[in-house]
Amino acid sequence: MRIEKLAPALAAALVFAAPAVVLAETAAPAPQATPTAAAQSRPTDAVVREGMEEIRAALDAKLGADGARSADALDAAAQAELGKLVAGRVGRILKETTLPDKARKPLQVLFSDIIDGTELMQISPRPEIRRLAVVKVVQDVNRYGRQFDHPGWQPLAE
Question: Where in the sequence is the signal peptide annotated (predicted)?
Answer without folding.
Answer: 1-24
